[in-house]
Every structure is written in structure tokens, then in C-alpha cells.
Write a structure and sequence with these properties.
With 140 residues, the chain is an all-alpha fold. It has one domain: Four Helix Bundle (Hemerythrin (Met), subunit A). It is 74% helix and 0% strand. The chain is built from four helices and no strands. The radius of gyration is 16 Å and the shape is elongated. The chain starts with 16 loop residues before the first helix and ends in a 7-residue tail after the last helix. The protein binds fe (ii) ion (2 copies).
Length: 140
């Protein structure tokens, strides 16, 4: 049985079908990493899941950036900077693990969980509210 770190809740839905779907995939990947961490899976298993998580995160951020560009989101640069610093942090974790820490730590897991939830309910919710206000079709 997979122990979950994040239980997806409707409170995490921001009201854009594709974005919500992508956020759920991110939650699943973090849960998968957590499961590997709990069961002390081998280094290469953990690092493969971490890679998958980092790749998907970049894909998701790119998807959001396209929306921001398409609809001229005024906080695009600010939001992009927040994304970039998260990606740098995940790459740092990966390097630490590769350098011999050999496993993901509990602190890393908590950081990923808190960051994602806070980001969805903070910055991401903000752009949805803005596009709703602008009456952009795909957000209505
Ligand atoms: Fe997002
Ligand atoms: Fe975002």
C-alpha cells in the first residue's frame, strides 16, 4: 500500500481543468517519491522518481507560462521567478543525493509538500482569479 503524503482535496482545485489535472500528477509524483523514501528504496529508484518529478514540474511550469504569455498576465515575471527558484531547489536536492546523501530526507519531503500546496493555493489561485476577472473563456 502506498502511504500518501498529500491527499488531493477539492480545496486544491483552482478551476482550470488541465491545470488541475497537472497539479494532481505532481501530487502523485510527490507521493510516489514519499513511498520510495519510506520504504528506503535503492538510490537509483529514488533518483529516477525525483527526475520524473523535476521533469514534470518543468513541463507544468512551462504550461502555465504559455497561459501567462497568451493572456498577458501582469505578474508573469514574478510567478516565473518563483517557479525557477523551486526548480533550482529540486535540482539541488538531486545533487545532494547524488553526492552521497543517498536518500531523500524527511525535510525534503515536507518542503515539496508545503511548497506545492502553498503555491497552488497562493500564486496559482491568484492568476486564476485574475483571468476570471478578465473574463477569459477558459477560466470561466
Ligand atoms: Fe501550478
Ligand atoms: Fe505556478
Amino acid at each position: 500500500m502506498i502511504k500518501t503524503l498529500i491527499n488531493w482535496s477539492d480545496a486544491y482545485s483552482i478551476g482550470h481543468e488541465e491545470v488541475d489535472k497537472q497539479h494532481q500528477v505532481l501530487v502523485e509524483l510527490i507521493n510516489k517519491l514519499y513511498d520510495a523514501f519510506l520504504s528506503a528504496k535503492a538510490y537509483d529508484v529514488v533518483s529516477e522518481i525525483l527526475d520524473e518529478m523535476i521533469d514534470y514540474t518543468q513541463y507544468h511550469f512551462g504550461f502555465e507560462h504559455e497561459i501567462f504569455e497568451k493572456y498577458s498576465y501582469p505578474d508573469y515575471e514574478e510567478h516565473k521567478t518563483v517557479h525557477e527558484s523551486f526548480v533550482m531547489k529540486t535540482i539541488e536536492f538531486k545533487q545532494k543525493i547524488a553526492a552521497g546523501e543517498k536518500t531523500v530526507t524527511y525535510d525534503i519531503m515536507i518542503f515539496l509538500r508545503d511548497w506545492l500546496i502553498e503555491h497552488i493555493q497562493g500564486e496559482d489561485t491568484k492568476y486564476v482569479a485574475y483571468f476570471k476577472e478578465q473574463e477569459i473563456d477558459e477560466f470561466l
